[in-house]
Amino acid sequence: VNAPPVIVLVRPQLGENIGKAARAMLNFGLVEMRLVAPRDGWPNPSAGPAAAGADIVLADAQVFETVAEATADCAHVYATTVRKRGVMKPVFAPEAAVAAIREAQGRSAILFGPERAGLETDDVALARAIITVPINPAFGSLNLAQAVILLAYEWSKGEALASPPLTTLEPPAAQDELEGLIVQLETQLEEAHYFWPPDRTQVTKRMIRGLLTKPGWNAGEVRTMRGVLRAISPDNPHAKRD
Amino acid sequence: VNAPPVIVLVRPQLGENIGKAARAMLNFGLVEMRLVAPRDGWPNPSAGPAAAGADIVLADAQVFETVAEATADCAHVYATTVRKRGVMKPVFAPEAAVAAIREAQGRSAILFGPERAGLETDDVALARAIITVPINPAFGSLNLAQAVILLAYEWSKGEALASPPLTTLEPPAAQDELEGLIVQLETQLEEAHYFWPPDRTQVTKRMIRGLLTKPGWNAGEVRTMRGVLRAISPDNPHAKRD
C-alpha cells in the first residue's frame, strides 16, 4: 500500500478555504498539506476556525514558493482541473486517480488551484496527469474544499481502517420459529373466519406465509410479532370489548 | 433506470447551508430538494447567495412539516448518520446505497439531519436503511453540504452506465401507505393496553415501526396486512367470542 497523497493548494486566496480543505482532508485520513504562495501569507488567522478541529493539518502544513518546490519529493503529480485544457495528458476521474496513486511507486501529490481561476497552464504542465471530477455540464461549481473532499473521500475508500462500523444484524429466525408465527396467525384468522370461500383458503394461506417470510425477521422480532398478534386478538383479556 | 433520489434536509438550521446543499446537488445533477421544518422558515434570504447559481434547486424546493409527509411518495427512505445508533437497520456506505437506489423499484429519499445534532432517533426510525460515510474515526466532522455532495457525487458516477433493474418485483409501498399500517396496528395495540409501562411506550412503538418497515411490503401486501390485523381484532364482528 502506497503512502497517502500530498494535498497541494496552489496560491490559495482565502484562509477560510485553507481551513475547510484541512477539515475535508482529515475527515478522510489525509494529513499532509502543502501551500504554494498563499495570497495572504501563512499562518492565516482565518484558517483555524474554518478547520473545525483539524488544526493538526494546518500546524503541519508546509509553505513553498513554487509548485516545483512543493512537489520536489513526489514521483507523481496530478493536477485537478474542471475545464478542459489544451494540454495533452492523461485524464483520470477521482476513482481511477486514487487507484493509480495506490499502485504507484513513490509519493504522489495532487494540485488544487486558486479559488477563482483554478490552476494555470504552467502548473498543469508540471503534472503527469490530470484529475477531472465529472460534473454536471450545465452547472459546474465545485469549490476548493469540495474538490479536496471528493479526492480525499475516494482515497479513503481503499483504506481498510476507514471501513464503517457495520452493524451485526441478527440473522433471520430459524424456520421452526417462523413457522410458529405463521401457524399462530393462521389459527387466529381461522377463529375470525377470515378464510372464505373455502376453495380460496390454500391460496390465501400461501399469500400470508409469503408476507411473513419476506421480512427476514430475526428470532426476537418473530417473538415480538407473536406477542403483538396475541395482544390485539379477542382472546387477550385486556383487549377492548365493545 | 431509476429516478434520482430526493434529497430531504430535516430541520436545517442555516439558510446558507441549504444553499450550499443545493449547489452540491446540482453539481452532480440532483435537482429535487425537500425541506422539513426549516428553522428560519422558507424562503430564506441566505440560501440564494450560498447556492452560487443553483437557484433552480431552491426555487423548486418543497417544504413539509414532518419527515413522514416529505417522504410520503417514496418507497425507500435512507437516513444518513455518522454516529452509531441503537437502531438495527442495514447500514450502507454511499457507494452501496446509490447502487441499491439505482436497482430499486420506486422513488428513494435520503434524509440529512440538522447541522448541529444530526437526525433524531425518530427520524431514523422512519428509514429502511442507514447510510454512513466511512470517516476518520479520530476526526469525524462532515458538514451538511459535504455529506450531500458525497452522496450526489456517488449517484452521478453511475448515471452514464446505469442498467435497468433486474427484477420486476413490486416496489415497496409508499411511505404514507406504510404509515397507515403502522398507525392502525398502534391503535389496535393501544386498545389492547399493550403499551405498558407508559415510559416504555415510545421505545416499543419505535420497535414495532422497525418491524413493519423492515419487510419492504408492497402496496398490496400492506393492504392485506391491514385486513389481516383488522380480521383478528375484537372489533371484527365475525371473530370468535368466548
Tally of strands of chain A = 7
Largest interface: A-B, 65 and 63 residues
Oligomer: homodimer
Distance between the termini of chain A: 71 Å
**Major sheet: arrangement of strands of chain A:** 3-2-1-6-4-7-5
Q: Helix segment count of chain A? A: 10
The overall average pLDDT of chain A, rounded, is 88
Q: Helical amount among residues of chain A, as a percent range?
A: 40-55%
What is the structural class of chain A?
Answer: alpha/beta
Described by strand count, sense and barrel closure, the largest sheet of chain A is: 7 strands, parallel
- The geometry of chain A reads as elongated
Our estimate of the beta-strand percent of chain A is 5-15%
Q: What gyration radius of chain A follows from the Cα positions, in whole Å?
A: 30 Å
Order of helices and strands of chain A: EHEHHEHEEHEHEHHHH
Which stretches of chain A are low in confidence, meaning pLDDT under 50 for 5 or more residues running? Answer: 161-167
